[in-house]
Specification:
The structure holds two protein chains of two kinds.
Chain A (H helix, E strand, L loop, with lengths): L2 H32 L6 H19 L3 H22 L9 H23 L15 E3 L4 E3 H23 L1 H11 L1 H6 L4 H23 L9 H16 L4 H21 L7 H12 L10
Helix pairs in contact in A: 1-5, 1-6, 1-8, 1-9, 1-10, 2-3, 2-4, 2-8, 2-9, 3-8, 5-6, 9-10, 9-11
Chain B lengths: L1 H4 L4 H4 L4 E12 L2 E12 L3 E5 L6 H8 L5 E8 L2 E2 L5 H5 L3 E4 L11 H6 L11 H7 L1 H5 L10 H13 L5 E5 L7 H16 L3 E5 L3 H4 L5 E6 L2 E7 L7 H8 L2
Parallel strand pairs in B: 3-8, 3-9, 6-7, 7-8
Antiparallel strand pairs in B: 1-2, 1-4, 4-5, 9-10
The chains are: A mainly alpha, B alpha/beta.
Chain lengths: 289, 248
């Protein structure tokens, strides 16, 4: 066993885990409050990456500004989608929300494929984050270290927002019983809109972080979304901490599988999902109802 | 405590303005027609009890006022504003505090987070200190998760959280249900205290013994209609009729 390979796959796993964590966090809060399985989540992640790419190409806006602006732009787009489309599906079977977001994802991906092709575009690592950090036992690309730090910071901030603020208490209560929360005088329609925007912003942030690592590709979201769904199922709903830990953990497990049994690396997550569903149908951190 | 017992003409002489006016209200859940023309008024500072058997339409009446029913016909005015068609959170902000039968204490929120959840709608609400003075248990359990509280504590919390908002009209659905007698007694004291503080209270009660000494007026509902309306002063004379409707 080569320790270099092991450590290399571990860091790649950890980086992937960071993306799973950010995306599953957004998916989980959206599902909690809106009761919609947001199939457009991958497309929003893709939009984040493209927003960074286009901002650089068209306006010369650099990575650091993109990191702030892309989530705002994509979040605003999602707010309009919620306000004008998703809201009309309220009260209907959950399937309609799923179908709508699925259709939206296909449409967005189609538009970008038509416009930019499916070869994938490259976005270079910003100058400040080039190079390697020598950890003694291994050399870590600086950008990967940055991804881990930035995404953990964002995940912890979101956790703090949900667990320690007034908005968070509205959101948690709204997830349990939106009708009662509304009759206590809380503006639930606004809460729903903001929460969809927050989830989308989180996906877009992940998309910008991903742009220099993976290629900026119209289908980049579809590929990661399936694993993210598995993460949400494994972690269970109702625990923001659970979504973060499960995302990171599964990334690492996936990385380790690549070292020890590469053939299973793309199925490991789904095997874990099957086992978890058999033992704890509500997920590792979910509450059995 | 003596105020309401010794004032049989309370609702006529010392009556304030009408704060809730329900007129010819019909309520529907899907295809089922639940309320068939309910009309009544509630005046400021009044305590009104809705009595009747289960299925008579009492909870639906309260839920209609809160805007939680699929479809309504007729009219409801709260503090002079027609509320049918408004979103529930806007209705609440007209000055209503709603304590549902299921209590709905949020398990993912601590006791104190539950208490602080509803936004203030006026500055007439109680402070946290005042609330903890009335419900000392909630202070000692402030950091416990909402659903780890006992039934009595959850009921107190469900009432306490609507006192902080500044709502002056309280809609209480079956607050005495399923609780130990000592807790029911202390809830009765709480209601008495709230009326002296100037709250208007509409309470649904199965437990007539509990409601009888507390309310100024009683509305008995059956099959979606108000079938009997009584003042506190008429209570003694009409016990038999009430028992007939309540089926005891």
């Amino acid at each position: 066993m080569n320790t270099q390979v092991l450590l290399g796959q571990l860091t790649i796993g950890l980086v992937n885990g960071c993306f799973y964590a950010m995306l599953s966090l957004g998916l989980a809060i959206i599902f909690g409050l809106l009761n919609i399985i947001n199939f457009a989540h991958g497309a929003l992640y893709m939009l984040g990456a493209f927003a960074a790419y286009l901002a650089l190409q068209l306006f010369g806006i650099n990575y650091w500004y993109a990191l702030v602006l892309a989530p705002i732009v994509v979040g605003a787009f999602a707010i309009l989608v919620e306000r004008f489309f998703l809201r009309r599906l309220e009260g209907l079977d959950h399937l309609y929300g799923l179908l709508f977001t699925f259709g939206l994802a296909i449409a967005l991906e189609g538009i970008f494929r038509d416009r930019f092709g499916s070869a994938g575009l490259s976005y270079s690592v910003p100058d400040q984050l080039r190079g390697l950090i020598d950890l003694g036992f291994m050399r870590l690309p600086t950008y990967r270290a940055w991804v881990v730090v930035a995404s953990l910071f964002v995940c912890i901030s979101v956790w703090f927002l949900l667990e320690r603020t007034r908005y968070g208490s509205y959101l948690r209560a709204g997830t349990e019983n939106p009708r009662l929360v509304q009759s206590l005088g809380i503006n639930v329609p606004l809460l729903v809109t903001l929460t969809y925007g927050l989830g989308a912003g989180l996906a877009a942030f992940a998309g910008v972080l991903a742009a220099p690592i993976y290629q900026v590709h119209p289908l980049m979201g579809s590929n990661i979304l399936i694993v993210t769904f598995a993460v949400v199922v494994i972690g269970g709903l109702g625990s923001t901490g659970g979504a973060i830990i499960t995302g990171l953990g599964l990334g690492v497990i996936e990385g380790l599988t690549k070292v020890f049994y590469p053939e299973a690396s793309s199925t490991a997550v789904f095997m874990i999902m099957a086992v978890v569903l058999l033992i704890r149908p509500a997920g590792l951190f979910g509450q059995e109802s | 405590m003596s105020a309401h017992v010794s004032s049989p003409s309370h609702s006529e002489s010392s009556a304030g303005p009408i704060v809730i006016r329900v007129n010819d209200l019909h309520a529907f859940y899907g295809e089922s027609h639940i309320l068939h023309g309910v009309s009544f008024d509630v005046r400021e500072r009044e305590v009104v009890s809705l009595l009747g058997r289960n299925g008579g339409g009492r909870t639906t009446t309260i839920r209609s006022i809160m805007g939680l029913v699929d479809r309504l016909k007729g009219s409801i005015e709260i503090n002079g504003k027609r509320s049918i068609g408004m979103k529930p959170f806007r209705i609440a902000r007209l000055g209503l505090g709603y304590c549902p039968e299921e209590r709905w204490i949020f398990g993912s929120l601590s006791c104190e987070e539950n208490l602080l959840l509803p936004p203030k709608i006026s500055d007439q609400g109680m402070s946290l200190a005042q609330i903890y003075e009335i419900f000392p248990n909630l202070k000692t359990r402030r950091n416990a998760p909402g659903t780890k509280l006992s039934g009595g504590e959850q009921q107190m919390l469900a009432i306490a959280r609507i006192l902080r908002t500044g709502a002056k009209i309280l809609l209480l659905d079956e607050i005495s249900e399923g609780l130990a007698p000592t807790i029911v007694d202390s809830l009765a004291d709480t209601i008495t205290k709230l009326r002296t503080l100037g709250y208007t209270i509409v309470m649904i009660e199965q437990n007539f013994e509990f409601a009888a000494p507390l309310a100024d007026r009683f509305l008995v509902m059956e099959r979606g209609r108000v079938v009997l309306e009584l003042d506190q002063s008429e209570l003694a004379a009409k016990t038999e009729l009430i028992n007939h409707y309540l089926g005891v």
